[in-house]
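Go through this fold for my students:
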Amino acid sequence: MTLRTPLNHALTTALIAGGLTFGGTALAQPQGLYSADELTDAEVFTSQNADKPVGEVEDVLLDENMQVHSLVIDTSEFLDFGQKQHIVETGKFTVETMNGDDKDEVEYKVTVEMTEDEIAQQPEYTDDWWADTQKKAVDAWEETKKTAASAWESTKAATANVLNSAGDALSEAGNETEQAAENAANETEQAAESAGNKAEQAGDEVVNETQQATDAAGDKAEQAGEEIDQETNN
């Protein structure tokens, strides 16, 4: 079995800021900065027994976003599991800081939320595990990019459809407005022509009635004159 060189040997005294997530249980006192160098070799305990160490931190593994992915726990000198190192992922352990104000004296105590037997069942830190996990991480990253690209294309298409629909609606509304204006103008013109025809007809009727009244009055005046002449002659 081949074991890998601890990551912190390459990082030297790496300080991992803020986003370092050590577990699902919140720390009693947030520290803000954690030393990967000091975390390595920290003793590991189980939640069932806080006084009996079951291993020590051999390595700190980071993911693509430089967040803590897991700890490599070496149980060789503490448990009767043989020369093995196990992977304990973030969310399954918590970290307690001691002397956190002194960077040269800071110490960490790691508590694993599982039993000794459960630790023994965790994946072993081997070349095969490394290659498999690395491939899964790369595949997940590629899938995330594809999903993001697909979502972006869908968003662009949806936006284009909305804009096209809005443009069609505005165009249709413009056509309807123009048609309504033309209809209103035609109706106004027809109403004006109708009113003019009625006014002209009314004027003709008034003239005719006036002429008839004048003629009737003239006839009556003429008849009255004839009657007066007859009476005078008699």
Remarks:
- The longest strand covers residues 49-62.
- Residues 144 and 150 are 10 Å apart (CA to CA).
